[in-house]
Recover the amino acids of this structure.
């Protein structure tokens, strides 16, 4: 989402935002129940320690008879050891369960977010930077893991211990603790103000970190361009500026949070010291025993430490609340392109698929005032090869994107085999279509896996046959490990032409009834282009093919050539027909083939 939306929602994140994690916690109710049980048992063991200490002091140290004192000490020390052993056992069990929950819930959340993002239409990525998504998948989920796997457990444990200690202090010293509670109420009000500041700054800090991720993802994917223009220093400076902005926001958040922690601990400690002072006066007056005072001291320490931990945990909760909200925003995003409620089935494809665009007008969401296509009507018959040509920005690639239903046209209809694409399940629609894009995509895996991406269940022999058809077999076989060679991120170990032939082999392996070629030979040298063009000519037989090309040499044998200009169809015909007209195609052909625009013959 754009940063301005993040800024508008920055004040909305509260600990209640963590309720968005409920669907991810619900499947693990048994583990949560066990974690809570062990947590309560560990807290109860801690609260029993002061009682055992009181008995030790009053019965073991104050007893007059030396023999009785030794026996009492032995019994009470054994009791204390038993309490300590129980505390260790329950704490270990609690730690394991909550850590397991943190890891499991974070993994489920990360998987859910990623699976949701890859289902989004290209419109989503027009307004959302890849680095922003990566930040949410990594930084935000890590914050959630910290809370679910640690902070939340610590918070609950210290809440139970703090309430228990406070309850015991009220029971043993009701008058004094009544005064202390009155003072503690005054601590809450300023804490709420500081907490609100921390919450806003936490969300802002996470947004600034996302900015740095967005810059890094953009630049690292364009390193050759950056280095060719000697812009390394400028990009490093831009990243440093974003990092400093993130640091400055984090510094402000940390400063306010430190003030919150200092205030809570100081005020709470002062209030409890007042209660402790009153207790010592009661011992001096003989109103309570020394063991009673020792018990009070330990409960005071437990309460103070619990409040201190809770102040820290509250800050973590606020940060995790912001992270959870950002993740829930991502999960709440709905793609404008989705399966219909009752999808229709496509008829069997025989000899290719038919295509029809009827009165199509389309604006890209990022350019709502500029039409990419204007009232376009086009029919492509089964088995026909149609070429789309025209200047850059004429709308050629847009036709392919509408056929794949990456977007929906604002007006008119797009149909395949007589069925409007809006009425088809996306998986069925795209199973009918194969595409070779202008910017060939090669994944960080082996050559055979990259080609098999077109049909995951294909055998090795089928993959090799597709590679041979695309004239990719020879260069793949020459790689260090042949088809098992790792091709590097985005295929950096291959030339542009080799990457393009991998993409062509992938599409040929899929063997779809409708083949879309978007500048499919643009990255090939003359010799490779001849080979691949021959392979593409063979691949086009028996199926419908739509070719987008700037280089007119690749479309000479098309059954029809459709000329687009400013989103409209301005001409249609064969190469021979169009070169004899004094139109846009004739002028383009004249520039590329040195033909006379008037006669279509060489000059």
């Amino acid at each position: 989402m754009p940063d301005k939306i993040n800024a508008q929602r920055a004040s909305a994140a509260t600990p209640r935002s963590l309720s968005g994690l409920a669907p991810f916690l619900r499947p693990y109710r048994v583990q949560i129940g066990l974690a809570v049980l062990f947590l309560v048992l560990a807290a109860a063991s801690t609260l029993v320690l002061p009682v055992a200490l009181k008995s030790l002091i009053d019965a073991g140290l104050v007893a007059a008879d030396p023999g009785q004192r030794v026996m009492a000490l032995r019994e009470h020390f054994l009791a204390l050891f038993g309490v300590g052993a129980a505390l260790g056992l329950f704490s270990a069990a609690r730690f394991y369960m909550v850590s397991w929950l943190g890891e499991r819930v974070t993994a489920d959340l990360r998987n859910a977010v990623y699976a949701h993002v890859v289902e989004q239409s290209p419109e989503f990525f027009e307004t959302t930077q890849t680095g922003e998504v990566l930040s949410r998948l990594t930084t935000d989920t890590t914050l959630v893991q910290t809370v679910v796997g640690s902070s939340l457990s610590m918070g609950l444990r210290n809440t139970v211990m703090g309430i228990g200690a406070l309850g015991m202090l009220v029971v043993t010293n009701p008058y004094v603790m009544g005064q202390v509670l009155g003072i503690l109420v005054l601590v809450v009000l300023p804490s709420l103000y500081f907490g609100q500041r921390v919450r806003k700054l936490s969300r802002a800090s996470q947004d600034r970190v996302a900015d740095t991720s967005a810059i890094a993802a953009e630049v690292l994917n364009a390193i050759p361009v950056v280095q060719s223009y000697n812009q390394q220093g400028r990009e490093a400076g831009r990243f440093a500026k974003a990092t400093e902005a993130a640091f400055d926001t984090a510094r402000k958040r940390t400063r306010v949070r430190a003030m919150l922690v200092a205030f809570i601990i100081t005020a709470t400690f002062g209030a409890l010291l007042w209660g402790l002072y009153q207790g010592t006066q009661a011992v001096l007056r003989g109103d309570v025993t020394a063991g009673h005072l020792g018990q009070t001291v330990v409960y005071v320490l437990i309460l103070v430490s619990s409040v201190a931990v809770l102040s820290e945990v509250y800050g973590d909760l606020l940060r995790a609340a912001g992270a959870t909200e950002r993740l829930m925003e991502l999960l709440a995003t709905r793609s404008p392109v989705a399966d219909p409620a009752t999808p229709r089935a496509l008829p069997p494809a025989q000899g290719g698929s038919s295509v029809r665009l009827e009165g199509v007008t389309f604006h890209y969401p990022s350019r709502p005032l500029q039409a990419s296509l204007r009232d376009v009507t086009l029919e492509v018959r089964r088995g026909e090869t149609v070429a789309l040509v025209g200047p850059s920005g004429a709308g050629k690639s847009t036709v392919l994107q509408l056929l794949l239903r990456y977007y929906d046209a604002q007006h008119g209809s797009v149909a395949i085999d007589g069925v409007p694409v809006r009425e088809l399940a996306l998986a069925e629609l795209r199973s009918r279509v194969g595409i070779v894009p202008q910017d060939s995509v090669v994944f960080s895996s082996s050559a055979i896996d990259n080609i098999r991406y077109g049909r995951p269940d294909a055998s090795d022999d089928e993959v090799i046959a597709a590679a041979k058809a695309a004239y990719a077999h020879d260069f793949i076989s020459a790689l260090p490990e042949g088809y098992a060679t790792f091709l590097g991120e985005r295929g950096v170990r291959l030339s542009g032409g080799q990457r393009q032939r991998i993409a062509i082999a992938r599409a040929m392996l899929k063997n779809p009834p409708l083949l879309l070629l978007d500048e499919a030979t643009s990255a090939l040298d003359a010799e490779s282009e001849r080979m691949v063009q021959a392979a593409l000519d063979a691949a086009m037989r028996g199926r419908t093919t739509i070719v987008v090309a700037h280089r007119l040499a690749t479309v000479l044998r098309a059954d029809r050539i459709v000329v687009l200009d400013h989103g409209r169809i301005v001409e249609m015909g064969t190469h021979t027909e169009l070169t004899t007209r004094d139109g846009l195609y004739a002028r383009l052909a004249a520039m590329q083939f040195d033909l006379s625009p008037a006669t279509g013959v060489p000059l």
About this structure: The CA atoms of residues 466 and 505 lie 5 Å apart. The radius of gyration is 35 Å. The beta strands are 355-363, 371-380, 385-389, 411-416, 419-420, 433-436, 514-518, 544-548, 560-565, 568-573. The chain has 19 helices and ten strands.
